[in-house]
């Protein structure tokens, strides 16, 4: 039996996670992390008050203690700053991955350990395996549809040691069923969308309040001006909608294929493999993180360049200092994006072996 602090978000996954741990006989306390409050009335409908009440109702139903932990300052320092400086420098950051490393398994875990808990549990769909040598691996969740191991790509061994993922052994329908069986008050609550702190709004709407507009031309890959953009940070490579430029070819949309910061130009091209720069095989990764032991030299791996895509066969060549690597996919991948996270798994596609940030994408 262990004393475990469960991150209760108000959603059904973490509610069931708490119930499962309790069923296993652990001493469970639930806590809501207050990360962001829309006190400046910026944008978005941040449903945090409702979420806290939902989380509290779950704790009451389970008969466990409930706390609200205020981590707003840390969130600003560790996630919002990273997010805004990434966009300002022209890359596409991933605040969800950073929130897991810096908040849930960062300051929230520190809080838990300081307050007599052994571990932090969340409702993530992933698994933690204890190996014969006493180390831990992060595995994909059994529900291939819901697997969230990608979002934990940057956790380290210490964080894994103190993490628990009770719903990773279940499918989402099983989790919903259990929630109904246990009569949890949020059993039918709909899944949250978007980024944990900005609620149900679009990232571009959020960014407009923090990063000044910087309008420029939208050009095709052959340099023809076809429209205007409001700032390069508001667009992501591979983006099909929202750039406002209709393609002259029936059935083949224009997508964002590049950003040219020197000329403040957004480059669009047809969404097809022949378009220069849209599909690439090779890239440089930085900020390598090894969840269970450093790898070195050349390794065959499966690399997943974004959430909800498959992990693809690739060769990873790690630098001598272990901080960066060259990654070459066997087949070209669509819209590899600087700033985004690459989750790298072993060849069985179960255990995470490296997490990293895309630094540069090399054109063919
Ligand atoms: N504000 C929060 N306070 C405490 N824990 C949180 C909070 N936000 C997220 N978590 C934890 O992180 C997990 C994953 O968060 P995510 O935002 O991806 O939620 P989710 O997959 O919709 O899960 P849930 O159904 O529990 O909301 C949650 O299951 C929960 O354990």
UniProtKB/TrEMBL annotation:
It is an enzyme of class 2 (transferase). NCBIfam families: PRK00143.1, trmU. The lineage of its organism: Bacteria, Pseudomonadati, Verrucomicrobiota, Verrucomicrobiia, Verrucomicrobiales. The keyword Disulfide bond applies. The active site is at 99 (nucleophile), 196 (cysteine persulfide intermediate). Its EC number is 2.8.1.13. It comes from Sulfuriroseicoccus oceanibius. One of its GO terms (biological process) is tRNA wobble position uridine thiolation. This is tRNA-specific 2-thiouridylase MnmA.
């Amino acid at each position: 039996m262990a004393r475990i602090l469960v991150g209760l978000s108000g959603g059904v996954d973490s509610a069931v996670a708490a119930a499962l741990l309790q069923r296993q006989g652990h001493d469970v306390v639930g806590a809501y992390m207050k990360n962001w409050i829309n006190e400046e009335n910026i944008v978005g409908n941040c449903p945090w008050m409702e979420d806290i009440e939902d989380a509290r109702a779950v704790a009451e139903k389970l008969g466990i203690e409930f706390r609200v932990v205020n981590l707003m300052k840390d969130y600003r320092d560790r996630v919002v700053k990273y997010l805004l400086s990434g966009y300002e420098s022209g890359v596409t950051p991933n605040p969800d991955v950073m929130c897991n490393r810096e908040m849930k398994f960062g300051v929230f875990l520190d809080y838990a350990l300081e307050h007599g808990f052994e571990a932090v549990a969340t409702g993530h769909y992933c698994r933690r395996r204890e190996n014969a040598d006493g180390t831990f691996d992060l595995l994909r969740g059994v529900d291939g549809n819901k697997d969230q191991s990608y979002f934990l790509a940057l956790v380290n061994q210490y964080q894994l040691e103190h993490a628990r993922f009770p719903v990773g052994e279940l499918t989402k329908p099983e989790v919903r069923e259990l929630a109904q069986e246990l009569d949890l008050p949020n059993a039918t609550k709909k899944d949250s969308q978007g980024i944990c702190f900005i609620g149900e709004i679009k990232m571009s709407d959020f960014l407009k309040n923090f990063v000044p507009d910087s309008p420029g031309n939208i050009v095709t890959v052959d340099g023809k001006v076809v429209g205007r953009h409001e700032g390069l940070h508001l667009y992501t490579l591979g983006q099909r909608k929202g750039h406002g430029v209709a393609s002259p070819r029936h059935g083949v949309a224009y997508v964002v294929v590049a950003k040219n910061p020197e000329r403040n130009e957004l480059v669009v091209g047809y969404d097809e493999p022949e378009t220069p720069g849209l599909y690439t095989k090779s890239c440089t990764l930085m900020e390598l993180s090894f969840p269970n032991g450093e790898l070195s030299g050349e390794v065959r791996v499966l690399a997943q360049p974004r959430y909800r895509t498959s992990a693809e066969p690739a060769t990873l060549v790690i630098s001598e200092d272990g901080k960066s690597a060259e990654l070459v996919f066997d087949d070209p991948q669509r819209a590899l994006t600087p700033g985004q996270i690459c989750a790298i798994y072993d060849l069985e596609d179960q255990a995470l072996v490296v997490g990293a940030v895309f630094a540069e994408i090399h054109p063919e």
